[in-house]
Amino acid sequence: MFYMLLVVNAVMRHRRSIHIFLVFAVTWLASSSSAVGQSATKPEYGPDGRLKAPIDFEGWVFVGSNLGLAYKEELPTMTSVEAARAAPQLFHNVYINPEAYEHFRRTRTFPEPTILVMEVFSAASKESDGVLSSGVFNGERRGLEVAVKNSARPDGQTTPWAYYDFSDQRSPNIREFAPAFPDQVCESCHRQHASMDNVWVQFYPTLRKLLK
User: Fold this and answer.
1) What is the C-alpha to C-alpha distance for residues 173 and 79, in angstroms, rounded to an integer?
2) How many CB atoms lie within 10 A of CB 210?
3) Pairing relationship of beta strands 114-124 and 90-96 according to DSSP bridges
4) 117-172 tens-digit pLDDT
5) Where are the alpha helices (DSSP H) in the chain?
6) What is the SS3 assignment for 160?
7) Could you check whether the bond before residue 113 is cis, i.e. omega within 30 degrees of 0?
8) How far apart are CA 120 and CA 139, in angstroms?
9) Selection from 39, 91, 40, 35 nearest residue 62 by Cα
10) CA 42 → CA 54, 150, 185, distances in Å?
11) Angstrom distances, CA of residue 12 to CA of 20, 51, 52, 122
């Protein structure tokens, strides 16, 4: 009788071990399948070809920031809107989607799709506690601009790089969709003056250091 109890206990422990192993295996396979099934970051468009504003880009790769950069007045890019925005000092914080960054890190080229997001903030110098004596920091958000490299863009244009402005000049809110700027407004300037494939790598230290 005692021997039989030992056998039964051993079998039960064996079954529990198998059960625990199976639960672990199923959990691991589920998480692995989920990781494999996650789609890469891709641009999303409306039925009319307008780009949808990217979300959660704060978790992308931060490539650099600038304060108060503005185009020369004689450039076609310096429109009345650009001139109005260039008057105050604004922070431009730029992010790139992780897949494009990893591709650039390995190959020094920008793949399709590459998405660059520029979030614009006012340069604030006063805060509620009054502890600052000098300097400026990122204040209220003033806008959101996006550059996308996608030769299969659905708006009918064939230029791979397109530029979008989601800023609402009437409020700090961001529009959900935005049309691409005409090439002569943005794309041609980037093509002529940006250091690599329409991207201002010369201004982005996270990308710039990869070329050394």
Assistant:
1) 22
2) 14
3) antiparallel
4) 999 999 998 887 888 788 899 999 999 999 999 999 999 999 999 999 999 866 67
5) 2-37, 80-86, 98-107, 187-193, 205-208
6) coil
7) yes
8) 9
9) 91
10) 9, 10, 24
11) 12, 59, 57, 67
Cis-peptide into 47, omega within 30 deg: no
Question: Which two tokens mark 166?
Answer: 């989601």
Tokens found for residue 200: 């201002």
80 and 185 in contact (C-beta within 8 Å)? no
Instruction: Please give the structure tokens belonging to residue 112.
Output: 């399709």
Take residue 124 and report the two structure tokens written for it. 């604030």
- How many percent of the chain have pLDDT more than 70? 74
Longest alpha-carbon distance in the chain: 100
Provide CB contacts within 8 A for 171, sequence distance 6+: none
